[in-house]
């Protein structure tokens, strides 16, 4: 049996990074290379993007991947970085609460210490799960983590604002139920207006997570001043990377020039980065270095 104590220590460290007014900033990664680059940049922790992972595996976002595919990607990332990893598991890759419990067990095995769990149905309808049903799924996630002895950070995603018709009152009602069910934080993508963000931060009895873009204030300090405790890039980095691929390909094919390639990473630098990463994982006993501060120091020094 794998020793869970390093994972538990990493989970405790990750939890402590959620401070209203001094937010944890998470540039989301989708593969090993992007994860190592985020770590090298000095991130205190790393989040995956389900959309980015799906795209790089050749699938559309929205629960199109099965649990095994999604968590294999998370495991590859967690195995190479020294900072805590939180996994976007969409709606839990399961039809019911018991399945969500199984997914969270697999998340811990993969080496992640946090999860995002969405409350929207992935059928294109934009319909949210009933509060009681979603609360049961969050409670199952909490139970799985407690049974493993790991204080997994359960981030309850509430999609009330993504369709454009959400309200603060509806969001606060759902947030209260999810926190009571065991959520440690609340993620409200699409909440952009500063007064709305402030009202959510003040009204939710847990750290508030927002995603950059969608008309949000343009800087991290502005969001921090509103009481936000966690800021995610979502699929933004992946979309920016793919935009560069399209732009560079079109330039090369249409004009015969290749100016878009000028700022690419040096071959040796990128190859060297993949030759480093975390090398202290011992396959024999599953132990890992999960010290975020040490990880940041090593990432910056190139070790």
How would you explain this protein's 3D organization?
It is a single chain. It is built from twelve helices and eight strands. The model is unreliable at 280-303 (pLDDT under 50). The chain has 303 residues and is α/β, with parallel strands linked by helices. It is globular, with a radius of gyration of 19 Å. The protein has helices at 5-16, 32-40, 50-56, 67-80, 97-110, 131-148, 168-181, 194-203, 220-225, 236-254, 267-274, 292-301, and strands at residues 24-26, 46-47, 85-88, 114-118, 153-157, 185-187, 208-211, 230-232. Helix 4 (67-80) runs parallel beside helix 5 (97-110) and helix 5 runs parallel beside helix 6. Strand 6, helix 8 (194-203) and strand 7 (208-211) form a beta-alpha-beta unit.
Outline:
The protein has 303 residues and is an alpha/beta fold. It has helices at 5-16, 32-40, 50-56, 67-80, 97-110, 131-148, 168-181, 194-203, 220-225, 236-254, 267-274, 292-301, and strands spanning 24-26, 46-47, 85-88, 114-118, 153-157, 185-187, 208-211, 230-232.
Secondary-structure-based class equals: alpha/beta
What is the rounded distance between the termini? Answer: 30 Å
Strand line-up of the largest beta sheet = 1-8-7-6-5-4-3-2
Cα-based radius of gyration, to the nearest Å: 19 Å
Order of helices and strands: HEHEHHEHEHEHEHEHEHHH
- Oligomeric state of the chains present here: single chain
């Amino acid at each position: 049996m794998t020793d869970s104590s390093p994972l538990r220590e990493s989970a405790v460290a990750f939890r402590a990074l959620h401070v209203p007014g001094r937010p944890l900033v998470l540039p989301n990664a989708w593969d090993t290379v992007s994860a190592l680059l985020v770590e090298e940049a000095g991130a205190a922790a790393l989040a995956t993007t389900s959309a980015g992972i799906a795209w790089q595996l050749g699938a559309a976002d929205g629960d199109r991947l099965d649990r095994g595919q999604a968590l294999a990607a998370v495991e590859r990332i967690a195995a190479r970085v020294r900072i805590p990893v939180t996994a976007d598991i969409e709606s839990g890759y399961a039809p019911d609460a018991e399945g969500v419990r199984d997914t969270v067990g697999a998340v811990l095995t993969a080496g992640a210490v946090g999860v995002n769990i969405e409350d929207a149905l992935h059928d294109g309808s934009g319909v949210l799960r009933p509060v009681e049903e979603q609360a049961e799924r969050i409670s199952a996630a909490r139970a799985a983590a407690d049974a493993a002895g790991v204080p997994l950070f359960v981030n309850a995603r509430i999609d009330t604002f993504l369709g454009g018709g959400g309200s603060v009152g509806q969001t606060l009602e759902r947030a209260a139920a999810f926190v009571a069910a065991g959520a440690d934080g609340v993620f409200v993508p699409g909440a952009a207006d500063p007064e709305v963000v402030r009202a959510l931060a003040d009204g939710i009895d847990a750290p508030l997570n927002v995603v950059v873009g969608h008309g949000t204030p343009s800087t991290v300090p502005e969001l921090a001043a509103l009481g936000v405790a966690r800021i995610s890039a979502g699929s933004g980095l992946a979309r920016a990377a793919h935009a560069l691929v399209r732009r560079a390909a079109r330039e090369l094919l249409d004009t015969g020039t290749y100016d878009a390639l000028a700022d690419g990473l040096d071959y040796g630098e990128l190859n060297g980065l993949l030759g480093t990463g975390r090398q202290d994982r011992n396959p024999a006993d599953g132990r890992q270095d999960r010290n975020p501060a040490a990880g940041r120091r090593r990432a910056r020094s190139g070790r």
